[in-house]
């Protein structure tokens, strides 16, 4: 579904991504592991069209989207749930969710079905629907952010550090939701520092360090890799 072929991104004289090549197959949950500052968010923003590549190409569903505008990329079916959630804090939970449905606003029946799916994943959002998004706990705000991304009915959902700063119980809830989203037919690309929890739900993974892919493999291969375990799993 998604292929990055030799992608590099440069800020002035500094190359922040260097010859990145990854693939994400339809129906997969692929995790991108890396420490803070390794390049995970830059990679996601590049796929979303927010950063321009200096070399390589990005192909989604057979089409080169390397130079496509962010709005066009969203319209093709790629949704990006950014690190830090980026909600509209003064708007209600319900309004934040509906903003995510902008690209499919012409099909109100589909919007209603998708909203029902979001509420099934995160029942607390029904209770909190009329509250300002900024008044919610960090975990609940993350649920709103994921739900907002899902409201666009994406084929590929990119989740950037969705568990950052959350309590262990909420981390489990968020990652369980990511796994359920994938089982329901939406391909997921997940960026995480929490390698142990992320690999538990992933099909495959990549390790990114200082803007380069250094390791790749199946969940089992990465979990058994001594260097990956020492650096990211803590074992």
Task: Describe this structure in a few short sentences.
One of its GO terms (biological process) is L-amino acid transport. The protein has 235 residues and is α/β, with parallel strands linked by helices. The chain has helices spanning 40-47, 70-76, 93-99, 108-121, 124-127, 138-150, 168-183, 195-199, 219-224, 226-233; strands spanning 2-11, 14-24, 29-33, 55-60, 63-64, 78-81, 156-160, 187-192, 204-209, 212-218.
The largest β sheet comes out as: 6 strands, mixed
The side-by-side strand order for the widest beta sheet comes to 6-7-8-3-9-10
- How many β-strand stretches? 10
- Determine the structural class based on helices, strands and strand pairing: alpha/beta
Reported by name, the CATH topology of the domain at 1-77 and 189-234 is Rossmann fold
Shape: globular
Protein name: Branched-chain amino acid ABC transporter ATP-binding protein
Domain ABC transporter: 2-235
GO molecular function: ATP binding; ATP hydrolysis activity; branched-chain amino acid transmembrane transporter activity
Keywords: Amino-acid transport, ATP-binding, Nucleotide-binding, Transport
């Amino acid at each position: 579904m998604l292929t990055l072929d030799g992608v590099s991104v440069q800020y002035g004289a500094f190359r922040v991504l260097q010859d990145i090549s990854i693939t994400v197959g339809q129906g997969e949950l692929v995790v991108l592991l890396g420490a803070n500052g390794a390049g995970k968010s830059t990679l996601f923003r590049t796929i979303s069209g927010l950063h321009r590549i200096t070399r390589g190409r990005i192909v989604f569903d057979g089409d080169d989207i390397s130079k496509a505008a962010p709005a066009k990329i969203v319209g093709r079916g790629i949704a990006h749930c950014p690190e830090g959630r980026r909600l509209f804090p003064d708007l209600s939970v319900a309004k934040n969710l509906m903003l995510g449905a902008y690209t499919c606003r012409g099909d109100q029946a589909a919007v209603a079905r998708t909203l029902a799916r979001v509420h099934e994943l995160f029942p607390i959002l029904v209770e909190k629907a009329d509250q300002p998004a900024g008044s919610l706990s960090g975990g609940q705000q993350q649920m709103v952010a994921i739900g907002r991304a899902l409201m666009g009915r994406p084929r590929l959902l990119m989740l950037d550090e969705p568990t950052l700063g959350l309590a262990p119980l909420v981390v489990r809830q968020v990652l369980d939701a990511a796994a359920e989203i994938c089982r329901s037919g939406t391909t997921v690309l997940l960026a995480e520092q929490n390698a142990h929890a992320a690999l538990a739900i992933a099909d495959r993974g990549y390790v990114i360090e200082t803007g380069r892919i250094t390791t790749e493999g199946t969940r089992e291969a990465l979990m058994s890799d001594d260097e990956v375990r020492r650096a990211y799993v803590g074992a």
